[in-house]
Amino acid sequence: MRWVAAPSSSSAPANPSLDSCLVLWPIGPALVEALGASFREVAYFPIQGPDADLDAPRPVAYDYARADAIFAFALPAELKHPRQTPRLALFQCCSAGISHLQETAFYQALGPESQVVWANASGIQASTIGEHVLGTVLMLTHKVHYLYLEQQVKQRWVPHRELGGTFIRELKTLTVGIVGYGNIGRETARLFSTCGSTVLALTRSGRPEPFPSSSFSLPSTGDPSGTLPAAYYSTQQRSERLAFFARCDVVVNTLPDSAATRGCFGDDEFRAMKGEAIYVNVGRGSTTDHDVLVEALRAQPGEGEARDAVGTLRIGAASLDVVTPEPLPSSSPLYRLPNVILTPHSAALSAEYWHRAVLDVFALNVKRLRRGEQGVNVWRAPTTARGPA
Prior knowledge:
This protein is α/β, with parallel strands linked by helices.
C-alpha cells in the first residue's frame, strides 16, 4: 500500500519531523488505520516476518526517503546508508532484540550527528513469557511432559512406581534463579514468588535496582522496586556466579544476544548447577553452548551420587524457547531428549502483542518525541536532544 493520508478526523499534530510512517511488518488493516491518529500519512508494506505478503510490492527509494518513522523488525536489505532516509526521526523495532540491527551497514554508517531515535518493544511480552516459564516448569516438575510422551503418545498406562512414587516437586519448595532482571525476569520473579518459591537474581551490579522509568512496563506486572529476590549475585565475579547456580533448582535465562552474553552458559555454569536443576532459556539461543547442554541433559548420576549433587556435568531437564540456529535442524538431539521441552521461539506470541507494540509503545514514542520528551525503550538517541517543533 502506497502512502495514504490519514482520515480528516485524525488528530495527528502538524509536526513536519513526524508526519509520515512506513510500516514493514504485517500488523493488519485495523492497526494501520489506528496509526492514522498519530500520522498524517501511513504507508503499509507487509514484507517482513512469517506472515509477510509475498505478493506485496516492496518499498522503493521514494518511500524510504519520505518516511519520518519506520515500524519494522529489521532494516530492509536495500537500505545500506542513512542517506537513503534523510527524514527518518524514529526507527521503532517491533521486537526486544536489537543485535540484528546493530550489525547492519546502515546502522554502522550512522555518524555521531545522527538525529534518529532507535527504540525496541521490550516489555510488551513480559507477562506472556513469564507465564510460559511458569507453565513449562510446572510441566517438568509434575512430569506432565514425560506422561504425555509415555502415556498418550504410546497409549499405555504409566504406573506410579515408574514416576518415582511421590514425585511432584512443589513450587513452594523450589529456589528459582533469574539471570537478567529486566521486564521478563521481574515478571517471572513475581509469578514464582506468588507460588511460594524463593527467588534469586543474577545481574551485572549484584544489587537491587528499581526498574527504569524510561523502559516500557505492563501495568500490574513485574517487580518495580527490585525487592522480590531473597538475594542478588553479580555476573562480574566468577565465584558469585557459580554460587548462584549451585543454589538454584530452576535457572531462568532471560539474557539478550550480545558480544558479552554469547556462550556465557557453558561447562562451568552447567557443572555448578544441581544435578536435578531445570534450565529455562527464554533469552537468546546464542547465550548457550548447546553441545555442553546436551551432554548435561544426557548424563545420569553415578553410583552413590546424590541426584541433586553439584560439580558434575549433569542437569535434570530443560525448557528451551530459543536455540541456535533457528530453525533448529532435524538432526539436533534436542528434539529427541525426553527431558527437554522445545518450543519454536513462540513464548512471546501473545494475542495482545501487536496492539501493545503499535499503540502502547510506537504511538507513545511518537507522542513523546513530538513533545520533546524522552521515548520509552530507547537504546540509541541523538546526543543533542530534539526539542518540540
